[in-house]
Design brief:
The chain is an alpha+beta fold. It folds into three domains: 126 residues, Potassium Channel Kv1.1, Chain A, CATH 3.30.710.10; 122 residues, Serine Threonine Protein Phosphatase 5, Tetratricopeptide repeat (Alpha Horseshoe); 140 residues, Apoptosis, Tumor Necrosis Factor Receptor Associated Protein 2, Chain A (Sandwich). It is built from 19 helices and 17 strands. The strands form six sheets. Strands 8, 14, 15, 16 and 17 form a five-stranded antiparallel sheet that branches.
């Protein structure tokens, strides 16, 4: 039996090669290119008909010449069956799953394979098979997930990786009902860690815009609970998050435990006392679940009424409740549009609240910001100055850097660490999105990759829109005694 199967396979290969030769013929013009060896010597010349080969393979698939297997694509509860004439050699070369199925078919002397697919996968099955023949395909945004599902099912790794890259690069694309949340759920199911993490990061870094979209109300409780504990959420304020969470609970009516866990993930201490009072008197959701968050509200009122350093002496407050997120409110930072960011150094100044506690609400810190498009570390070789003294020299061209320092020192700073966060915006299809987040204490020189991918000197850089680089600087005051880890 094995010899017979081998003989049949050899005959099919000869027939397929003959069909290809007949299709190719002399029609394609040769493309001549010269390759050079690494030492500069002359290399061998290559005549390439690869583009013509792809064209003829596509024609071979479309016409079904010399096909030896019929693919019957069936969908549940559908009378119509899609039939594709294919060639077992090409299917086996591209997919180990097809190779196993075809081997089983040969043992059963069957001329067809019955494939059970969902309606969305069946709709793009022609595109999937075309990729197996030609190594390329064109697609719309909504076709990415079913194609990825087919590539995963049939173990076509090249296509699977290519679609993962396509999806991660198109998270910011506009779609009627949103697509990132659906892609996240699919990535969890498919075990695609790269896609899962990319979707979660995009949603976290652009959450303020997501909350105002139709996608927010349909996200799953699993995705919701993956987002809420994160400190890197980009929001106008914690109040914005609570208001959106109210909407989600009303529209999705989750079980009591899910609603309680979601409400306990809100950082009430980051809301001013007047907002907390308003929530307790006006929010029907908070009234319904108030017993579940009573301790958090109590701790939040204490946090605002006493000095944080004094409070830490009596209460264990080393938790996320007292950690600021990436708030876009002017109280916490400054939005800076830097015109012609490659031209020269730029400076600015802005003020932030000393700390999130109500005890520090009236205190302000003035900050100086310096952006340099060509910042480089000072070299160890000194240079002479006109005054006869020496100072370290600076390289003319370097990578962009940002320095944020307080304008004055104050005794009020005692016990407070200031973490700086800079959000870097990029344009995608005319839409501004947060592409990178960098955390530092004095200078982004602490981050060796700051704006490494931006290439501000390139005219088509996604990071420069209308000649400007858009960044948002956030200052996070962290009380040392509150954030210190326990021994």
């Amino acid at each position: 039996m094995l010899k017979q199967n081998t003989a049949r396979a050899q005959i099919r290969v000869r027939m397929l090669l003959l069909a290809l030769c007949c299709h190719l013929g002399p029609a394609a013009a040769g493309v001549l290119k010269v390759e050079r060896t690494p030492d500069g010597g002359g290399g061998g010349d290559t005549i390439s008909h690869s583009a013509a080969l792809v064209w003829h393979l596509e024609a071979l698939m479309a016409q079904g010449d010399s096909s030896d297997v019929s693919l019957r694509v069936e969908t549940p509860n559908a009378e119509e069956v899609k039939v594709i004439q294919a060639h077992s050699l090409l299917l086996s070369l591209q997919s180990s799953v097809f190779a196993d199925m075809l081997l089983s078919r040969n043992n059963n002397n069957s001329s067809s394979l019955v494939l059970k697919e969902s309606p969305d996968c069946a709709a793009v099955f022609d595109k999937f098979i075309r990729y197996l023949y030609c190594g390329e395909l064109s697609l719309h945004l909504e076709q990415a997930m079913p194609l990825h599902r087919l590539a995963t099912k049939y173990r076509v790794l090249g296509l699977q990786q290519g679609l993962t890259q396509y999806m991660t690069q198109n998270l910011a694309r506009d779609s009627p009902l949103g697509h990132v949340a659906g892609w996240y759920e699919y990535a969890l199911q498919a075990g695609d860690v790269t896609l899962r993490d990319s979707c979660l990061q995009y949603l976290a870094w652009n959450l303020s815009s997501v909350l105002r979209s139709g996608e927010w109300s349909v996200i799953s409780s699993r995705l919701l609970m993956s987002l809420l504990p994160r400190s890197d959420l980009v929001l106008q304020s914690e109040m914005e998050l609570f208001a959106a969470l109210e909407v989600w609970i009303v529209q999705n009516d989750p079980d009591g435990l899910t609603a309680e866990n979601a409400l306990r993930a809100v950082r009430y201490a980051m809301m001013p006392p007047r907002e907390l009072f308003r929530l307790q008197t006006q929010s029907s959701i908070l009234a319904r679940y108030q017993e579940s968050v009573r301790d958090l509200l109590y701790m939040s009122y204490q946090f605002h009424s006493a000095s944080p350093l004094q409070m830490a002496k009596f209460f264990d407050v080393n938790c996320s409740l007292f950690m600021p997120r990436n708030y876009l409110s002017p109280v916490w930072g400054f939005s800076w549009n830097i015109n012609n960011p490659t031209r020269d150094d730029r400076s600015t100044s802005f003020q932030t609240q000393l700390g999130p506690s109500g005890h520090d609400a009236s205190k302000r810190v003035t900050w100086n910001g310096l952006f340099s498009p060509r910042w480089a570390a000072l070299s160890s070789k000194p240079t002479n100055t006109d005054a006869g003294t020496t100072q370290p020299s600076r390289v003319e061209r370097g990578r962009p850097r940002l320095i944020v320092t307080p304008a004055t020192s104050s005794a009020d700073f005692a016990g407070v660490n200031f973490q700086k966060t800079v959000l870097v915006m990029a344009q995608h299809k005319g839409k501004a999105v947060v592409r990178h987040i960098y955390n530092f204490y004095q200078s982004t020189e602490e981050n060796e990759d700051f704006l490494e991918e931006a290439d501000l000197y390139r005219k088509t850089s996604d990071y420069v829109a209308d000649g400007s680089l858009s960044i948002h600087i956030i200052v996070k005051p962290l009380y040392q005694t509150l954030t210190a880890s326990k021994k």
